[in-house]
Amino acid sequence: MNDILIGLIDKLSLPLDDTAARRTLRDFASGAGFDYYAYVHLCGKESFAVSNYPQKWQEQYVRAGYLHVDPVVTRAKHGPPVFTWSASEARRMGRRDISQMFAAAAEFGIRSGLSISVPVGFKNRMIFTLVTDRADPLDVRKVDPVTAAVCVAFVHARLAGAKQDVSLATDIRLSPREAECLRWFAEGVTMPDIALTVGVSYSSVRSYLDAATQKLGAANTRQAASMAIRIGLI
């Protein structure tokens, strides 16, 4: 497995665009005997995921709020840097919500996998997962955690700027006016001009932008606009 990870590092070290990076990861997963790959960047309200999971499963995962019950994510936050998981292991936890999640995942051929978790700063995490429809996961005792961490860093370098597949910040809701004003602000339009364009007062624009900034937990409006674009709100 270490040789395979080193091979992926070599390929990701090349200048790849979004499409090429995804194709490289898809081919890597397949060549290593897996069906899917998934990269999750846990970074608060900007958390997002890029994967080749079926679109219906991605939408269901977000809609059902599985991020908050997924034992893979929980273990990635608090467990070893490299670990395996399986549906059968999860069912032994005795939690109905987790059993329901894995029952739904099994319909898409998601039954076991290998995950690599790398901390970024105090709270953030980069998680790279390889998934198979096999009942039992791969033996990871011979996976070097340093090599695995370097591999995830290269995955992050290639996908951090990619068009995300799903935003995991499902609890953020901007009003139509807040989104509209923030979208104009992101395009470089001044607040007086936004007021004229939208047909509201300057103070209303300021109020909408302040509300959006607060909802996003941003330090200022410029950061709020960047975050909103990143997680697909505008």
Overview of this protein structure:
A hairpin with a 3-residue loop joins strand 4 (about 110-120) and strand 5 (about 125-130). Helix 8 packs across helix 9 (about 190-200) and helix 9 crosses helix 10. The longest helix is centred in the middle third of the chain and has 15 residues, at about 145-160. Helices cover about 50% and strands about 15% of the residues. The chain folds into two domains: about 1-165, Transcription factor LuxR-like, autoinducer-binding domain (Beta-Lactamase); about 175-230, Winged helix-like DNA-binding domain superfamily/Winged helix DNA-binding domain (Arc Repressor Mutant, subunit A). The protein has helices at about 1-10, 20-30, 55-65, 70-80, 85-90, 95-105, 145-160, 175-185, 190-200, 200-215, 220-230; strands at about 35-40, 50, 80-85, 110-120, 125-130, 165. It is elongated, with a radius of gyration of 20 Å. The mean pLDDT is about 90.
Percentage of residues assigned to helices = 40-55%
Number of helices: 11
**Fraction in beta strands:** 15-25%
Write out the strand line-up for the largest beta sheet, numbering strands in chain order.
Answer: 3-4-5-1-2-6
